[in-house]
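Our consortium's second objective concerns turning raw sequence data into structural hypotheses that experimental partners can test. To show how far this objective has progressed, the report includes one record in full. It was chosen at random from the queue rather than selected for favorable results. The single chain below, 178 residues long, was entered without modification.
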Amino acid sequence: MPHKSSLTLVFFWFISGCAPGLYWIHESSSIPSCQPDRLPEWHDFMPRHSKDQRGAETAIRFLVHPSERMLGMAFDRENSWVKRDFVEPENPILRRLSEQLLAHEQLHFLISCLVVRQANMSLTEQDDLFKALELTKSIAQRLNLQYDAVTNHGLNLDAQQIWETEVMRQLQQLEDQS
């Protein structure tokens, strides 16, 4: 049986975790390329009971706006879900897990948003919007798969923090350039 002080240390480490450092960076353009024009919250997800080991899933739709010659992405509420236990839990441990899971899902949204914003900044008049959309979608999907693999779906808190920092840095850099 583990020593009591070891259990206390593990419990403290588990509760303290890494504080989510995510925030929304508005675009300077008049038409936001990412919808909603904010970070998604649990109320945006469909609560459900699931035997799936995962606690949530974020679904994204990629869009073309031909009249504005730009790409977009939208949070897909119908296909985004969260296990009911993570929505407004009373238990402090479950509340902390819920916050960490939400930060992980929000970063999926931000990764896709970052890729769309980068694509829009590089589009020229000669570019085929539909080919650009397919490439953008492919890059975002690959990055999101890599993000899940490296962070073990958000369970590796150190890797999660590294991804959060880097995505936020790149989003801020894009906004500074525009």
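The partners drew two points from this record. DSSP finds four helices and six strands in the chain. Confidence is low (pLDDT under 50) at residues 1-20. Both points have been shared with the crystallography group to help prioritize constructs.
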